[in-house]
Automatic annotation (TrEMBL), chain A:
Cellular localisation: Cell inner membrane
Highest taxon above the source species: Bacteria
GO terms under biological process: peptide transport; transmembrane transport
Entry membrane topology: Peripheral membrane protein
CDD domains on file: ABC_NikE_OppD_transporters (cd03257)
Organism field: Gluconacetobacter aggeris
GO cellular component term of the entry, any: plasma membrane
MF GO annotations: ATP binding; ATP hydrolysis activity
Annotated protein name in UniProt: ABC transporter ATP-binding protein
Record Pfam families: ABC_tran, oligo_HPY
Domain ABC transporter residue range list: 5-254
Automatic annotation (TrEMBL), chain B:
Assigned GO CC terms: plasma membrane
Family to which this protein belongs: Belongs to the binding-protein-dependent transport system permease family.
UniProt superkingdom: Bacteria
Keyword set, alphabetical order: Cell membrane, Membrane, Transmembrane, Transmembrane helix, Transport
Lineage, highest ranks first: Bacteria, Pseudomonadati, Pseudomonadota, Alphaproteobacteria, Acetobacterales
PROSITE patterns, per database record: ABC_TM1
InterPro entries linked to this entry: BPD_transp_1_N (IPR045621), MetI-like (IPR000515), MetI-like_sf (IPR035906)
Protein name: ABC transporter permease
Locations listed in the record: Cell membrane
Pfam families the UniProt entry points to: BPD_transp_1 (PF00528), BPD_transp_1_N (PF19300)
Automatic annotation (TrEMBL), chain C:
Name of protein: ABC transporter permease
Membrane topology, as annotated: Multi-pass membrane protein
Keyword Hydrolase attributed: no
Organism name: Gluconacetobacter aggeris
UniProt domain ABC transmembrane type-1: residue ranges: 87-276
Transmembrane segments: 25-46, 89-114, 126-145, 253-276
Location of the protein in the cell: Cell membrane
GO cellular component, one term: plasma membrane
Pfam family for this entry, one: OppC_N
Amino acid sequence: MLLSVRNLCVDFHGEDGPFRAVDGVSFDLADGERLAIMGESGCGKSSVALALMRLLEGGGVHVSADHLALDGRSLLTLDARAIRSVRGGEIAMIFQDATTALHPLIPVGAQVVEMIRAHRRLSRSAARTLALSLFQRVGIAAPERRLAAYPHELSGGMCQRVMIAMAIACRPRMLLADEPTTALDVTVQAQIMDLLLDVSAESGMAVILISHDLGVIAGAADRVAVMYAGAIVEIGPTETIYALPAHPYTRALLDTAPRVDIGVGEPLPVIPGNVAGAHALVGCQFAPRCDVAVDRCHSARPPSRRIGDRHEVACWVTTDTAGADAR
Amino acid sequence: MGSLILSRLVQAAVLLIGVSVIGFTLMHLAPGGPLAFYTNSPGVSTADLVQMKHAFGLDRSVAMQYLFWASDMLRGNWGYSFFGGRPVRELVFERLPATFELMGLSMALAMLAGTGIGVVAAVRKDSLFDHLVTLWAMLALSLPTFWYGLLAIFVFGERLGWLPVGGRSTLGAGEDIAGHVTHLVLPVGVLATVIAAQWSRYSRAAILDVLGQDYMRTALAKGLSPLRILIRHGLRSGMLPLIALAGLQLPMLVGGALVTETVFAWPGMGLLFVNALSYRDYPVLMALLMLSALLAVMGNLLADIASALADPRIRLGRSA
Amino acid sequence: MSMGFAHRPRRPVQAGLRRFSRHRFAVVGLLVLLAMTVAALFAPWISPFDPDRIDVAQRYILPLSADHILGTDDLGRDVLSRLLSASRVSLLIGVSAMLMTLIVGFLVGAFAGYCGGWIDAILMRLTDMLLCFPNIFLLLFVAVFVPPSRVSLAALIGLTSWMEIARISHGQIRSLKQRDFLEAARLAGASNVRIIMRQILPNSMTPMLVAAALNTANAILLESYVSFLGYGIQPPQASWGNMLTYAQSEFAIDPWLAVFPGAAIALAVTSLNFIGDGLRDMLDVRLKSR
Amino acid sequence: MRKERRGVAEAASEASGQGYGRRTLLHLTAGGAAIAAFAVGGFSYRFRDRHLAPGQLALSDQCVDAFLHEAVNFNPLLYMEAGPETAVEYSVFDTLWKIDPSGQYVPNLAERIPTVGNGGISSDGLDWTIQLRRDVRWHDGKPFTARDVLFTLRVLMNPAIPVRSRNGQTNVEALSALDEHTVRIRLSRPFAAYMVALERTSIIPEHLLAMEPDLTRAPFNSRPIGTGPFRFQEHIAGDYIAFLPNLDYHGGKPAIGRLIQKYIPDQQTLFAQLQTGAVTVLDGKGIPADLYERSRTDGRFNVVLAPAPYVEFLYFNLGRPQFADKQVRHAIHYAVDRTAWVDQLYYGLPEATLSYLPTSHWAYNHMLKAPPFDLDKARQLLDAAGWLIQSDGVRAKGDVRLTFTCSTAAGEKSREEAQLLLQQNLRDIGMEMAIHNMPGAVVYGDYTTNSEFDMVLVGWDPMFYPDPDYSERVASHLIPAKTGRGANYSQFSHPEVDQLCREGLATLDQEERRRIYWRIQEILLEELPFIPIFSYRSALGVSKQLKNFVPNPYTPCNSWNNAQWRMS
């Protein structure tokens, strides 16, 4: 396994009181595999990504896990220097809005060069040559000129290409793509997704794609993890999830799919109620909004159970039925 | 760049004219006048007053007086003080170095220290250090400087006798740099503390603002060292508003040390201004007002240019 | 919002209040200020003595001795009573100068922002200019020509420090102008004045509230500076500023005379600054801290 | 938004242990460089300017004479601010004769004091012949002659030049030089105060100033050249003026190595400087009254009491209906608590007086009786005069209410406190006195000269002090609000006083004059156009090192004998 996560928890002790954003997430990721994490905004998917990079530590944020390993190396115990070499070197990350994720006062080329030189012993000019070729690789026209451009002189799509160029610069083992296309026009979205898949396939890079866009995920991921209120409620191969969603939440999510395309980033209107605060409830977090919930759902947290080939779900109702079927 | 400067210069000229008209009118509409001081001198007869009024040009209408003053000013003649008859330009320029020294030094020290403190406080937001800095800044800014000045004089000068309490040099000591520095300690200390408190607030806010930006997270995700992130990514944008602010504080060089100069008997512009005010020495007052306005205009322009140079997003030639 | 995480549903007002109350300094500041305001309001009834009554036989009584809790000054007047009476003046000047600042600043900023064009350019450049003068410089320049009184001082301070508010409201209006509801209001046939009062004013209220707290603090400080330079509130009326100024020469005889008004100013100003800070957090407005 | 910031913040703070503070500072240094450059500019300018400072001079030989106000005009005929500018005048310039602390005239530039006895003054008092010393040189080496005296007097008589005072010179009919060193002055009428007028007139050099197109703007005014005991060395505006001893001084070489007139605008700072020894003399108005007690026990310096010719007055505007009634003025006098005023508010520093003269003056009328501080008496007086208390607690008679304002120049603490005390006492007898203080430039402007005030609290000296003449402030033809000249701001008009004033000036016989001025003081205390409170006495702080510092009650400035000052 490239990445192995067991019982990852993220706790915030913010001004609004303590609050658990990620609540016992576990999953594995194989080399070159593409996993999508799907869910509404605020469900904790980005926190998972940031926690993997150890970008959430300190200042009232507490990250814990039974096991969090990249290639068998525990990420949680690395010292500051080692974790820096992981960031960008072994796990790269791209963000939702590339125009704000790039430093506005530094030419984009220099930002890529900076990334390269942070991880590889290359001279300034060699790094620049590499950056140039990366720009060509990610399909930036007139790369020479673009190296010297500032983010505000580039379009959103172009900025995201720069981000991708930066992400693949140090040949990382894994790429965290946090809503990489959300801020883009629909036509550009497709191009960027294609590019992303392209470069990951080419270098054998594993990808964790975080998105609420079912369309994007369908075409890109091998596996899908559905998160709700800080926990993974269902995980399984993409086709299985789309074809036979097991969790009521996944089903509801898929039902609203057409609408998601229209209202980017908006909460799903057809699921009644709001996302509950994680750990606020004793039972299943989704229970208050669930139309098939039974008494047990309100009193006890459902464990994640395997119901098919690499298909796991955390739901009393489904697993009981499925379990019955299996028996 | 050229057109930016040009258009700003035109604006500046218009503004300077406006300021001068308002200042001049205000001054002359006000009760009391420069002759009052002569009146108080029992040897001056009413006929003398009429004569003086004429000599000072005060018997003309305000509009005419303004025109005369303005045309003199444009030709580089700042006029003559009503008291002592010295050329105003001479009066002002002999005071400038003292004020620039006091205020410049205080501002330089305060900006350095204040920015440093503010950056650390921002980086360690909500730490004990941050809270202490906040408390210190609030206290420093909550009492008038003269209070601190008098306290410092009382403690360090009178009681402990460590430092000279006023003036700019040890009299008659010649070129005595050490003596000069000791005279600077208290006034600069008081002024710098207060200005530093302000700057620490500015820079803390600016850095906090930057730390919350997406690109700072990107920099972290790139695996850069925190030091590099703070300096190359954080300060680079955090300093932008501070640079602009520094430019805008340029006029403080003239009027900022008003009270401190009085307390520490510092022979600078502040004292000149306060005295000119109480004597109603119109030519001196106008000169100081215009100088301050000029510095304000320059400060604005410098702030804009500095921002334009430092921030590629501001397109040159268009005012920010 | 680049990163979403679940948050407990809470109404914004509640959340704001909670954020404010988490700002411990701000809460303390608010309590202190409230106490001072109440004391000022009821000063004539809670003052142990007539604040202006001179009794030279009773002068320089030290704090905590005899009937005078905070002692007496060089004319034998009760310091506590004078502080209370002074707080009425100083707080009043602070508040009325602040109101003045708000009104003038808002009108200039709103008018400029709303009209746009050359009116905007002229007004805002003038604002920039005035903002550049050291406040005390400007204030003194005007103060010399106007006899000092409670009203004139408040007006002067107000008239020389409205520029920041103008900038804030100007910025607000420029951004609000982009939004739809103004267009809607205009289409609905609302007059300009009505639009400014009904739409723009409430919408730019929040950042102005923060600036108001800071302005009040500033005005209280300015009053003391003006007093120091001899253009302040006239005797016999006490103000914190003139009490502090008069106490200077007694620093060695009776330092308490300088300590109490100093402490009052520091307390009020610090409280207001913290309240401003707290409000800023609470309303989460990005003020350009100038 | 807030939360991920934490990560960054924390990560950044990891590095703080690795010395990022230093690097940050380096970066910031670059930012502060521009401003630092200003400061450096200040330094270099400063040191270029001070090449004159004598490096070898022993600091112990230097006398620092400190004032609260700054001298700006060094031309003795033109300056306005008595005090520091007078000190410059006394250092750099000479007069024909001086007056010593006993009130005797002492020849200076003149060979001897002209009197009727020695023929210097003709028996009708009109012709004055003055012999000048022949051994006097200007600081630039040119000889001093009768031409300089004539030039000086002509400047004073030239109506086109706004001089400080041309008092006395208006009585001059003709001027001539009998030879290089003899001056003849003919007066149009006998004028006793002319001795004082000349005692007050410093002689300026004709050879340097005769060609000046505009005397008021002459560079001379800031770089004076005189014949006095000290030569002007340098002036650092807002800071100090330095003088070096005039080695050729005709009165003997001054004993101090360097005289510095220091300007310290804040009283507390000034006092602290005296305590730390940075200042040799706390001069001018001296130590503020409220520090007087403490200064006497400080021990680090001597306190020298210097009587000054100023008297603190409450001046009434008799043009106001409230004050037209003499009984009201007397009632107010009963309500003046002179003892508390002098002893408490001024800590016993000044001396109570009942006349416009200090009690030590030769013409002071010692028969004057002070009314007691008696509020009941005041009330009775008002009741008897028909000023009755109205429903609002304020007395009135007809439609005139006893409501008025009292003004003084804002910023003088003891004086403002005295106003408060008076205000309280007057309130107790049914008068409403509002305090209406303004900056000096307003109070002493038209407000005073056009008699626009109700009551002012002022400290004024007689015009020709030490001459007892007071006609300028009491003669009826010198009411500026009516006649356009004079300084009779209270608009007092009393035929007998007018007559006495004329007689007093026309005679040179001191006994006769004493009789006249006694009568004038008697009338003034009865008519009460103003209430004298006390005559000023400054508490000067003087370093124990300074010898021969002797205040002179007859000069407006203590530098009168600074040629004799010596540092031990």
